[in-house]
Write a structure and sequence with these properties.
- The structure is a single chain.
- The chain contains one helix and six strands; from the N terminus they run ββαββββ.
- By secondary structure, it is mainly beta.
- The protein has one domain: Hotdog Thioesterase (Thiol Ester Dehydrase, Chain A), CATH 3.10.129.
- The protein is elongated, with a radius of gyration of 15 Å.
Length: 125
């Protein structure tokens, strides 16, 4: 879902962008001109955060699993034609569990923020 990663500090932070295309079908039943569902913002934040974690050589061959979402706040709606800047910072890693602080920004305005909890797992179990 994320279009590109524009900044990366492996194991620390990542910044990515997601352009919402006009007529892009994000979820079944979505119509042109409707606001983007908040779940799309959360998914974009989780993906950018995963890039920050998985870019470390020690995490090759692993995936991140979503284990929780805390303090999620949605401040403004996002509409087709807008570009979302997603910022994710790893704030804690203990063993295979971690927490990332994420925010979504459109046109310099924060539209959403959340803390995303995750666990590292091997791809093959």
């Amino acid at each position: 879902m994320v279009d590109e990663i524009v900044e990366l500090e492996p194991g620390k932070r990542a910044v990515g962008t997601k352009r919402i295309g006009v007529g892009e079908s994000c979820l079944p039943g979505e119509r042109d001109g409707q606001a983007v569902p908040p779940v799309l913002l959360l998914e974009s934040m989780a993906q950018v955060g995963a890039v920050a974690v998985l870019s470390l050589p020690a995490n090759r061959g692993k995936i991140t699993l979503l284990t929780g979402i805390e303090n999620a706040r949605f401040y403004m709606e996002v509409f087709p034609g807008e570009e979302i800047r997603v910022e994710a910072e790893i704030v804690r890693m203990k063993g295979r569990f971690g927490r990332r602080r994420c925010r979504a920004v459109v046109g310099g305005n924060m539209v959403a923020e959340a803390e995303i909890l995750f666990a590292l797992a091997n791809i093959n179990g």
